[in-house]
Write a structure and sequence with these properties.
Length: about 325
């Protein structure tokens, strides 16, 4: 187990297992991100994996587990009603988990363009107390982010403060008008005429020794990175953020004689000073912002359910707009 915390920016979505995080601040499940209709399959898949791996010598499951499953809706990107995700896919995914770089731009939507999965990280220089000498020594902590980016409208999309999405819409509107087409284009609205909505799941991992309340605070800073790119938490969006620390492995069953007669202290765990946490807050906001950019910039145009085409972000066009604007 490890310490973890979460933040619900907007709750039109699901992240199972968070009641247990509220109670204990402990994460003891693989983190699975799937589509909205596959939460049950993912939940079962986690159990199937754990049963196969951790059943005792008598074949009995003598442990407790609440899987952590998060979702975003990809209903027009794929046939979500086909219920294609099965528990065995989750088992395979867990077995294949590694420390290799995360594949980016897995097919889901984004803020008016093709989005998907993005990642980013930061190195943070700090100090920690040396147990032997009692002196402070330099240390480097890592903070990594992963986003499942399936939210927002093109009109809100920004890069480095530049309203790229709105500028694209204005350009497209002027182009249509110059062709003397009869319809009027409103560049502040989605060209499809449909309200654009969606979700984003953000996971922050760090090697910094943080306790659960600090991790809740860190998860909240994902909101800053999301806002920089144009996200504002629409009513129908599931914007749920998780943060966990790998600094300490908390034993599920401490190897001490814990009596039911009273509280027992069996371990001492160093944690970061609250007054020095700002560097992590800044890193989290920056890394989340960059992870969303990476999801969009690595995406490829795809055709989904019913021939619905979702265009990738035109990077040459972005470059031209940025050069002109800046």
């Amino acid at each position: 187990e490890c310490y973890a915390g979460y933040f619900r920016f907007n709750g039109s979505g699901e992240m199972t297992g968070v009641h247990w995080l509220d109670e204990t601040g402990l994460l003891n499940s693989p983190i699975i991100i799937t589509n909205s209709f596959a939460v049950e399959a993912a939940y079962t898949g986690v159990y199937e994996y754990c049963i196969q791996k951790y059943r005792n010598a008598k074949g009995i499951c003598d442990w407790f587990l609440l899987p952590l499953i998060a979702e975003t809706f990809d209903g027009i990107r794929s046939d979500i009603g086909a219920l294609a995700v099965k528990p065995e896919h989750i088992v395979h995914g867990i077995r294949q988990a590694s420390s290799h770089p995360v594949r980016r731009a897995i097919p889901v939507g984004g803020p008016g363009f093709k989005g998907g999965t993005g990642s980013s990280s930061r190195l943070i220089e700090g100090l920690e107390l040396d147990a032997r000498s009692g002196l402070q020594k330099p240390v480097t902590y890592t903070l990594g982010t992963l986003v499942q980016c399936n939210y927002g409208a093109q009109r809100d999309f920004r890069i480095g403060g530049v309203p790229v999405g709105r500028l694209f819409l204005e350009e497209d509107g002027n182009a249509i008008q110059s062709m003397a087409l009869s319809e009027t284009v409103d560049p502040t609205k989605n060209p499809t005429g449909k309200k654009k909505d969606g979700s984003i799941i953000i996971v922050i991992a760090t090697s910094t020794p943080l306790h659960p309340i600090q991790l809740q605070r860190l998860a909240k800073r994902a909101t800053v990175g999301l806002a920089r790119v144009g996200g504002w938490g629409s009513n129908g969006s599931g914007d749920i953020f998780l943060a966990f620390s790998t600094a300490h492995e908390i034993p599920r069953d401490p190897e001490v004689n814990i009596s039911d007669d009273g509280p027992t202290v069996s371990q001492r765990i160093p944690v970061l000073e609250d007054t020095s946490i700002n560097a992590l807050f800044e890193a989290a906001a920056d890394a989340v912002e960059e992870a969303i950019y990476n999801a969009l910039c690595m995406a490829e145009t795809m055709t989904g359910l019913g021939g619905k085409k979702v265009e990738a972000l035109d990077l040459e066009r972005v470059k031209a707009v940025m050069e002109k604007y800046l």
